[in-house]
Task: structure prediction
Amino acid sequence: MKRKIKTTMDELIMAFDMNANEYSQYLNLETGGIAIISELSDSFDENGNEINWDDTERFDDKSKYILVPGSDPREAFEIMERFTETVENRELQQKLCHALSVHRPFYHFKDVLLNYPDEQKRWFSFQEQAIRQQIHDWLEQNNLELEKK
Result:
């Protein structure tokens, strides 16, 4: 039987998106709250209270907390590649392919889409759906499910 957690997909998406090199986010399996831990800036527990870096060992308790995975740059790049394959406008598709082949592909990819608002909107939807699937897979792997509200 899966463990039900009291959080939303939107909260998990935000945590997933924010997790990067300097941030780690932990889901409280009992309350559904998400703690934000950083070595470089302020850290907050799942109730929004500021905590000291020395007080973060409590998040090692696997029965109460689970690390929310962050966005993997390789996976993010693959999502951009998959989206590019769906673009019907050949000129735009070529521009996106080029953007993915140069230095700072994430920046250039988004920059190209600025000139194509309909495709940019489609990109945001495509990207969100891919992230939702990654989170769904993570929930499945950890035998968790979102509690229906």
